[in-house]
Design goal:
- With 334 residues, the chain is an alpha/beta fold.
- The chain folds into 2 domains: 245 residues, QueA-like; 69 residues, QueA-like (Thrombin, subunit H, Beta Barrel).
- Helices cover 17% and strands 27% of the residues.
- The strands form 3 sheets. Strands 2-1-17-16-14-3-12-13-15 form a 9-stranded mixed β-sheet, with helices on one face. A 6-stranded antiparallel β-sheet has the order 5-6-7-10-9-8, with no helix packed on it. A two-stranded parallel ribbon has the order 4-11.
- β5 and β6 form a beta hairpin.
- α6 crosses α7.
Amino acid sequence: MPLSTDDFDFHLPPELIARHPLPDRQASRMLVVDRTAGTINHQKFTDLPAFLRDGDRLVLNNTRVVPARFFSNDGRIELLRLGGPDPLHWLCLVKPGKRMKPGRTIGIGDATGTVMAIDADGNRLIEWDREVDPDTHGQLALPPYLDRQQEDADRERYQTVYAREEGAIASPTAGLHFTPGLLETLPHSFLTLHVGLGTFRPVSVDNVADHRMHEERFHLDAETAAHINAAQRVVAVGTTVTRVLEHLGRELDTGHPTVKPALTAASGATDIFIYPPYRFRIVDALLTNFHLPKSTLLMLISALAGRDLILEAYAEAIAERYRFYSYGDCMLIV
């Protein structure tokens, strides 16, 4: 029987949404879900090393969030920059869209942009007469559920401590818990996936299988591929890492469930959508934050641990007053 989007619903009391980060990055709680034993345990994030084994390899996403939210000089138009071929040509989500038809102009600072075209998704292609300085005029595109404007602290705390490669609209939030001191004690490697809107786009269809993901760009270097191939167990830090590794694992599938594909350096884009049932090729364990109801990310972790166990874990996290979403607590699935 096809899975329905409603099969991944739950009620979250609004007060459990973490609207600000904790003063200490690594002070979060960590719900540990053992998918073999079917158990749920309450720990602290700093207990993570105790759940790692010899031969484990953490894989983290080193993308860096760029200011992608802009407002016109008169404050009436909001742009979310999704990408574009160069600094003078932006693909944007625009609010309100009805005001920005082809030929209309917008001013940001001393730059004037003209709407050149509207794509099939309603996004605008805007051409600028000069570059817009994102550090001066841009803001981080904080998730709507934070229900607040950007604050000075967000420029640091909405980035992981290992963020290097600029290009993400949203942060790979499972990594926000790490400090340099903790990370250097753990065997780890990096890949890059520039997180876009596609990961967080709401599922608007009833049948889960009918949902289509947008593409996101990734890069895996040869050194990280070699470390992953040599690992006894691959521990993905976040769903973004999981999507890259499983995209490549699916492409290189050996056809033998017990034999992992050997990864090599790769760059490209992925639109992989992971939902139950799904056979994981590369990822053995996952550190992740808590996700929104009916979201593709909740479907992904349900594919790894089982929908019933995940919904049970979420119910327990809510009962124990865990902090949810980007700035919230985390879950380790082993």
